């Protein structure tokens, strides 16, 4: 028998529960709401790079789990994060994604807050005396904020474990790159796509799909070097890909030039490729001369917003800046060779998982955690299953 | 040789049509060998201007050659362009500033705006006719969805 009947199509694959996922986890609003409570509001998420709030008063907004946040450096030099909501009537306080301010003032009734989140001014406060409203109890909602290697992480859960415990050693491959280069954001882009957030994340974790990318086929895939690719899984679902099996040969792609080691970021050689994903939304990719920080935001069960930051040394000359921009754009820009393909792939999977035509996904490649093993996908879904309290291979109660 | 308004409008419109038709060879025929195409955008997130695309003639030629090998968004693009000012830029050259909208139509026939912005086209006229010497596309749209493998 070559094709399958309706019954066979609907039957779970004959695989361990860890080696496939159920289509409902990509399409169900109920699953999404459960993810929001059990995962999104519990994890440490990358918010911005420290250089984006370099000076006192510098701020940068971030949004996730339906919550608008503002990261700000105080006049005391400390970086804090607040829910971007006025205590009075719920208005959004900061409207622009980045800037500098002396304090927060809500546009609506001019309630003001200092950069520690304390409410400092309420116009004509005497009218609140009858109800004993006291501005000292009306500060902004502060969100846990911790920094590792210049990466600012936030967590909506006040009871969460510290960032260090959450990350463990997962950033080890990027420690030198992040700390030895005095980095700043030199390019930024975001995109909203019609795909479930896990369909997007799978394009980051699925190593087997690199055949889809002509740029990777030409510059990077060496079947003989598959066993030199190192796949490492850390506690809490973080993963790292690296090793000499990922070395790239850029001039093999038509119109691209070789990259010079002298222009590589400290901690890398020009042809290095490595990546780390911090469960579930944050990641780092390095390609010799450029570093990319990514984070995404699930908007609903069928839409995801992705942000990418290109990082370069502050000391770059205009010529080096131009070179790094070119290298970054070649793979990762909105007109680049790779990222648009990954985005299309995620949307094409949504076409089938979204309405329910696709029933299961197979993540069963085993290559001893080398080459194109599906171990990263299994690690991701193992952590997902742990936090959701049930395997990703099982449909949710009320999910259909 | 001068570049008239009609010359400029015809060149910009024809260039857009060739890009819509994905007739890369015909588009390149409208470009000077020294042609440079940049797409820039100012992002309030980082408070600076960024370059999202920068290719010279040879770079475009190489890029167009591999377009068929890429996985791309299905459907077609339509560039609606409106040429505004034409300013002299020395002997035989003008700068044409246009606004544009790039509309994507998917395989179901649904159209939606992908991007809007301005073209700043430097155009020269010589014995071989009018040619694009430089195009700077200033994007107003910063969320391009899945992006594009070809210039706007």
Structural class by helix and strand composition of chain A: alpha+beta
What percentage of residues of chain B falls in helices of 4 or more residues?
10-25%
Largest sheet of chain A: 7 strands, antiparallel
Distance linking N and C termini of chain A: 30 Å
Strand content of chain A: 25-35%
Order of helices and strands of chain B: HHEEHEEEE
* Assembly state of the chains shown: heterodimer
Mean pLDDT of chain A: 95
Task: Report, as a whole number of angstroms, the end-to-end distance of chain B.
Answer: 29 Å
H and E string of chain A = HEHHEEEEEEEEEEHHEHHEEEEEEHHEH
Strand percent estimate of chain B: over 45%
Query: What general form of chain A does the structure show?
Result: globular
The greatest interface between two protein chains, and residues involved on each side, is: A-B, 38 and 33 residues
| Rg calculated over all Cα atoms of chain A | 23 Å
Number of strand segments of chain A: 19
Low-confidence stretches of chain B: none
> What is the helix content of chain A?
10-25%
**Helix-strand makeup class of chain B:** alpha+beta
Q: Please give the count of helices of chain A.
A: 10
Instruction: Report the mean per-residue pLDDT of chain B as an integer.
Output: 96
């Amino acid at each position: 028998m070559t094709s399958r009947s309706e019954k066979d199509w609907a039957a779970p694959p004959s695989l361990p529960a860890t080696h496939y996922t159920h289509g409902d986890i990509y399409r169900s609003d109920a699953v999404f709401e459960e993810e929001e409570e059990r995962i999104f509001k519990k994890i440490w998420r990358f918010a911005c790079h420290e250089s984006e709030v370099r000076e006192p008063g510098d701020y940068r907004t971030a949004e996730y789990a339906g919550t608008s946040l503002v990261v700000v450096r105080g006049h005391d030099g400390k970086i804090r994060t607040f829910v971007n909501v006025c205590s009075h009537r719920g208005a959004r306080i900061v409207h622009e994604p980045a800037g500098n301010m002396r304090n927060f003032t809500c546009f609506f009734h001019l309630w003001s807050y200092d950069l520690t989140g304390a409410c400092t001014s309420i116009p004509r406060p005497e009218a609140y005396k009858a109800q004993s409203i006291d501005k000292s109890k009306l500060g902004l909602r502060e969100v846990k904020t911790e920094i590792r290697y210049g990466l600012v992480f936030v967590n909506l859960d006040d009871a969460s474990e510290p960032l260090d415990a959450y990350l463990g050693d997962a950033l080890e491959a990027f420690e030198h790159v992040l700390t030895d280069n005095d980095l700043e954001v030199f390019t930024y882009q975001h995109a909203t796509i019609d795909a479930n957030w896990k369909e997007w994340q799978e394009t980051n974790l699925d190593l087997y799909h690199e055949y889809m990318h002509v740029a990777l086929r030409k510059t990077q895939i060496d079947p003989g070097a598959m066993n030199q690719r190192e796949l490492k899984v850390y506690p809490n679902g973080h993963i790292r890909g690296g090793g000499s099996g990922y070395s790239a040969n850029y001039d093999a792609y038509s119109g691209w030039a070789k990259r010079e080691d002298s222009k590589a970021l400290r901690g890398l050689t020009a042809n290095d490729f490595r990546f780390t994903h911090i469960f579930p939304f944050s990641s780092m990719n390095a390609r010799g001369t450029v570093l990319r920080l990514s984070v995404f935001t699930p908007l609903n069960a069928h839409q995801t917003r992705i942000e990418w930051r290109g990082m370069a040394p502050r000391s770059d000359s205009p010529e080096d800046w131009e070179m790094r921009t070119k290298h970054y754009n070649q793979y990762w820009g909105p007109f680049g060779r790779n990222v648009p393909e990954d985005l299309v792939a995620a949307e094409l999977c949504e076409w089938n998982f979204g309405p329910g035509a696709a029933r299961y996904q197979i993540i069963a490649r085993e290559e001893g955690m080398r080459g194109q093993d599906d171990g990263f996908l299994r690690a991701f879904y193992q952590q997902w299953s742990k936090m959701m309290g049930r395997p990703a291979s099982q449909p949710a109660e009320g999910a259909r | 040789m001068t570049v008239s308004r009609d010359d400029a409008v015809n060149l910009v419109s024809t260039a857009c049509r060739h890009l819509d038709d994905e007739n890369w060879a015909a588009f390149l025929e409208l470009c000077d060998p020294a042609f440079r195409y940049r797409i820039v955008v100012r992002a309030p997130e980082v408070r600076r201007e960024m370059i999202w695309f920068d290719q010279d003639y040879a770079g475009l030629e190489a890029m167009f050659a591999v377009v068929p090998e890429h996985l791309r968004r299905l459907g077609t693009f339509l560039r609606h362009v409106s040429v505004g000012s034409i300013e002299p830029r020395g002997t035989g050259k003008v700068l044409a500033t246009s606004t544009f909208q790039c509309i994507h139509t998917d395989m179901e026939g649904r159209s939606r705006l992908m991007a809007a912005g301005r073209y700043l086209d430097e155009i020269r006229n010589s014995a071989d006719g009018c040619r694009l010497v430089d195009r700077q596309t200033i994007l107003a749209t910063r969320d391009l969805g899945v992006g594009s493998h070809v210039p706007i």
